[in-house]
Description:
Radius of gyration: 22 Å
Strand content: under 5%
Number of helices: 22
Order of helices and strands: HHHHHHHHHHHHHHHHHHHHHH
Subcellular location: Membrane
Oligomer: single chain
Helix content: 55-70%
GO molecular function, one term: L-glutamate transmembrane transporter activity
Keywords: Amino-acid transport, Membrane, Transmembrane, Transmembrane helix, Transport
InterPro entries: AA/rel_permease1 (IPR002293), AA_permease (IPR004756)
Structural class: mainly alpha
Number of strands: 0
Family: Belongs to the amino acid-polyamine-organocation (APC) superfamily. Amino acid/choline transporter (ACT) (TC 2.A.3.4) family.
Largest sheet: none
Shape: globular
Amino acid sequence: MGLPTHTAQKGNGSLDTGNARLKELGYKQELKRDLSVFSNFAFSFSIISVLTGITTLYNTGLNFGGPVSLQYGWFIAGGFTMIVGLSMAEICSSYPTSGGLYYWSAKLAGPNWAPFASWITGWSNIVGQWAVTTSVDFSLAQLIQVIILLSTGGKNGGGYEASKYVVIAIHGGILLLHAALNSLPIAVLSFFGQLAAAWNLIGVLVLMILIPLVATERASAEFVFTHFNTDNGDGINSKAYIFVLGLLMSQYTLTGYDASAHMTEETKNADKNGPKGIISAIGISVIFGWFYILGITFAVTNISSLLSEDNDAGGYAIAEIFYQAFKGRYGNGVGGIICLGVVAVAIFFCGMSSVTSNSRMVYAFSRDGAMPLSSLWHKVNNQEVPINAVWLSVVISFCMALTYLGSEVAFQAMVSIATIGLYIAYALPIFFRVTLARKSFIPGPFNLGRNGVLVGWIAVLWVATISILFSLPVTYPITNETLNYTPVAVGGLLILTISSWILWARHWFKGPVTNLE
Length: 517
């Protein structure tokens, strides 16, 4: 498994450079290569979806640090995320395949370590992606439940509060819609991806202006930029500790940009446009995410009231902000409910794109024989869509959500893999790039030059840091109900992956294999 060179793309001036590079890497073109650089960007941008992540975890930011954590934590997480993205973009330029991270690890770890590196990275990536889809679509189900609650009078007006079984049913319905959409040709998905990107951009601009404008009471600039909330009710008094916990909202939001890598076999000139998709998705998300945080936080006047489970939205902070802003000015919260609908559409698009990315990872991983029944999941239909991989991803995401019926603690542990598990998969190929392949790495059209190793090390250290920080307890005293089960979930995933390698996969899995005849 020696490292290939970049020569084939120059052999035919009319040949797409991504197509030529894919052939160099040992794969034939099976998916339709029809995505532009904007379409590639749109998939990652709609998965990052600042409207999704910030809306879903705004409570966490408010509770742990408040405005200071929200504002400055966003830029800290955003800056380091860009560093991780730059390292990934450099590797993506050299290896533009749907396999993405696991393929990169195999090539960068060298012949001796390639199968193991590929196995660990691939399963961390694929399970992390399934957890992302689970958490995104479940958060949409929860938001729909809140919209129904507010539409029927709110918690204090006798509104309908759905049971957890109803929420799971809504979640299942959303996944079915996403599976149906992802069964359509890539040209149709490309259109929806671009629509999703536009919806997120315009939605942020509208909401950041509209909500504080409508609100009859607004926070001062001093509050928005300097207030630090220590009244978390969780027994945590250290400001540094509180600030760190507040970072979770930002880092959870800024995930999923590996979608640009997974879509490279369907992207024109992918060795150039894949990296552009990764970097632009992160950069624009950081800017527009801050706009959204800024606008919404100017409408925050009473943190404890927003976080109270006794408010009309049942403790869903942003829903309460939207609802009360319109109710305070117009006497009813209909406008706020409509604004929540705008967010709901953005989350829907986010889940749709997440399933797209999931299915391409399943397709590529099974193409190399890494999954049970690989030949089944690798199949593409007449429209060049990996249809079986789409439905597998949806079914597994639904099964992961079923843990919510048994224990909310177990469900939170499951979805924690969406952040930590995914970032471990991001860091592994970067780690191999700056260690085992430090001298042998052959960059593609996009590269960081002599700064590549330094940027790579910073990226690896940041992932190691957040993996530790997000495993810390979030409530004291620690009990079975308050324990942070993130290290248990992520550790369990790593134990299963390594054990399966030792007992089973090392005897037959050889890493990425060519499918050229």
